[in-house]
Write a structure and sequence with these properties.
This protein is mainly α. The chain has 15 helices and two strands. It has a two-stranded antiparallel sheet with strand order 1-2. The longest helix has 33 residues.
């Protein structure tokens, strides 16, 4: 079985490796980290399919590409759990919790309203809403298997969410300083209004130079990781909703088949939680050789591996996506993504003003 998958996995791996190199480049003053390896991977996959449309359908590669887009995507989410120390998140994240809850709620509500108003595909709208509100590609990766989204729907959502990530990374540092936001206020703003970790890192790093403050990055990333925990309730709620919907459809159709939540329950989320718990427990241990190795070596490696696996999955999804059709259907998803992005940014600023964080400095 594994032998049958190797060719497709290898193709995805090579594309991901190229995308990772591109995502680490700096050309003049332009740091391509704000684009990130996952976006480069999905774009390269789509371009390759445009030039060689038979690659993803080839008997040698199609099974491995499908495996990468589904299973390796879930593995990426599990591995991501090792980067979450729940104790650290509890300390730093509590301050930002009102902002996080407000922005997540806003994005999901906006996505639902526009899904109805624009008569959009429900899965694309869900993925964009979740990706915008929680943590970009990671949230989309976790949600896609729960709602049974296909590769083209995932590609649409990823493309839209990362478009506004790049804009945020470029615009927000200067904007934050121009509107008088304090350094802590900006850190929370970056952590709640920018989605992907690479874009949060890029925005916060730029802001540290503008604010002459070296703790914006660590605070922004911690806020971002706090948002990541919202993956857990969101995927569970969606699993329950889909189960209820499928049971209702089966009943109306007079089918005797009973749809069980076990079929779609996101079991990988339990492993994601377990990984976070392991990191939290290790973080509570006395400093020593093992703890130092875990924190300084193992966790960074897991972060990198999670990102690389997401890039592999995005490459596979790109290989199964028709870029012409994606562009043709792109109007409504872009409008939805723009609306979520603007409203998240405004709500983040508003809640900070109300709670007194806005003008605070680190």
């Amino acid at each position: 079985m594994m032998k049958k998958l190797l060719s497709g996995i290898a193709v995805s791996l090579v594309i991901a490796a190229i995308a990772t190199l591109l995502g680490g480049l700096k050309i003049g003053n332009v740091n391509l980290e704000i684009v990130g390896a996952p976006v480069f991977a999905i774009l390269l996959g789509m371009i390759i399919t445009l030039v060689a449309p038979g690659l993803a359908k080839n008997e040698l590669t199609k099974d491995g590409i499908k495996f990468t887009s589904k299973k390796i995507l879930q593995w990426a989410v599990i591995i991501l759990g090792f980067s979450l120390n729940l104790g650290t998140i509890a300390k730093v994240g509590l301050t930002s919790l009102p902002v996080i809850i407000s922005t997540i709620t806003t994005s999901l509500v906006v996505a639902f309203i526009l899904f109805k108003a624009l008569k959009m595909d429900s899965k694309v709208a869900t993925l964009i809403g979740v990706g915008s509100s929680i943590c970009g590609g990671s949230a989309i990766a976790a949600t896609a298997p729960v709602i049974d989204a296909d590769d083209e729907e995932i590609a649409q959502a990823i493309s839209v969410v990362f478009l506004f990530n790049v804009l945020a990374a470029l615009i927000f540092p200067t904007l934050g300083q121009a509107i008088g936001m304090g350094s802590e206020g900006f850190a929370i703003f970056a952590g709640t209004a920018v989605n992907d970790t690479s874009s949060v890192t890029a925005a916060a790093s730029t802001a540290e130079k503008l604010y002459d403050c070296n703790s914006i990055l660590s605070t922004a990333v911690t806020v971002k990781l706090t948002r990541t925990l919202a993956i857990i309730p969101i995927t569970l709620v969606l699993a329950l909703y889909r189960t209820k919907k499928e049971k209702s459809s089966a009943k109306n159709a007079g089918s005797s088949n009973v749809f069980s939540i076990k079929k779609i329950f996101p079991w990988f989320i339990l492993y994601f939680i377990a990984a976070a718990i392991v990191t939290t427990v290790v973080g509570m241990m006395p400093n020593g050789g093992f703890v130092s190795f875990y924190v300084e070596s193992f966790v960074p490696i897991m972060k990198w591996l999670a990102k690389f696996f997401i890039a592999m999955a995005m490459a596979a999804i790109g290989l199964n996506t028709n870029i012409k059709e994606l562009i043709k259907k792109g109007g409504k998803p872009i409008l939805l993504g723009l609306s979520c992005w603007v409203m998240i940014s405004l709500v983040s600023i508003l809640v900070q003003i109300i709670t007194g964080i806005y003008y605070t400095n680190l």
